[in-house]
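Hey all, sorry for the wall of text incoming. These are the two entities for the joint prediction.
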Amino acid sequence: MNANESLSRVGPVMRTRGLEKEYGQGEGLVRALDGVDLEVASGETLAVMGPSGCGKSTLLHLLGGLERPSAGEVWLAGRRIDELSEKALARLRRHAIGFVFQAFHLMDELTAVENVEVPALLAGHSPRAARRRAAELLEQVGLTDRAKHLPSALSGGERQRVAIARALSNEPLVVLADEPTGNLDSAATLDVLRLLDSLRSAGQTLLIVTHDSRIAATADRLISMRDGAFVEETRLTRGSSGGLGELAGLEG
Amino acid sequence: MREAEAIGKPIKEASQGYQLRVVQEVLLALLAKEPSHGYQLRARLQLALGPLAEALNAGQVYVTLNRLEKAGLVTSERVGQVDRPDRKVYELTAAGSARVAEWLEDTSWPKPAPAEFHLKLVAAAAAGLADPVRLVDAQRHELLAGLAAAQRAALAEPNESTAGLLLEGVVLRLQADLRWLEACAGYWTATKGRS
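and here's what came out:
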């Protein structure tokens, strides 16, 4: 059974209630997350920003089922996931969630197209179907001509685009990205931003954890975190360019 | 310095259009290669500014060329056109060339001025007038809106676009300001904890 088919698309795609995460104990106890309530709507691009150590990566790990909360609930498409068995959780991660990491996490010995095929093969698709899907995805991220290259022969921006293609393989309900431009220069950042923007236009739900304000500025909604809690929420309006001339120093 | 004020002011709609600060120097420099007419000069400015050119005051190029002529930095000649009114072709004078050379050598740079905002936070905290952290958050919000506009405009530019390079400059500068505001938030949050 495809996990996505059993999940309802009604209501928020992702939701948390009173989410807490503690590490260590006694004197060494660190509260990484302190009561986080979150809702992510379908098709929304949400950016979570904050200084390092504010708990934003922990939040992403809990949302993606990579770690379990100390308290609170995580819901994905109407289903509570923090209580699932390891096996069910692993299946959910493979089918319903796409991950993108700062360090790309590509397999060095596999070519770009082989890296992108992996999720489809793990999901039980035939090698032919997996190859076809991978080729489509590489085209979508503009890397058809790099399909046969090993990651070592690709630039940082290209590697991240391969990683994004891989994340999209099983048409995930949500893509979770942890500092996707953290290792990239300015030009490669722009390429990845363009790609994320095209995913957003195609209706992909995206949650991006970052300290890069330029990613945050292109999201639909921005949440600022400090000390394991949400401190501010900003809804960024689109389309206004009224102040640009002033910002560029054009006015006399 | 205009930039310093711009950071603190709400982003406003440009109704009349902006007066380009260095327009005199830019027009003179554009004329250094060969004589040209106003429409052509305006088109070159528009290409360099991309989406930002929309904010420019439409008549400024022509008004400025008139002024430059009165100041003896350019001369003009009327050239007749078939089916259209005559147009004026402008040419750089020796004084104009000297002015261009001066401008190219000039290394003055519009400075961001964090002192003003810094002092606002210090004063607000000292007088108990407002929570500095709240002021920082409001400021962040404002700069993020500007960054969003600049970043979206940059994304809409094709690769290798000249105007894209300008937008990149706006984006990187705002990012630096936002990083500093993050440091301000950290400092004033900690100060609250100590008091």
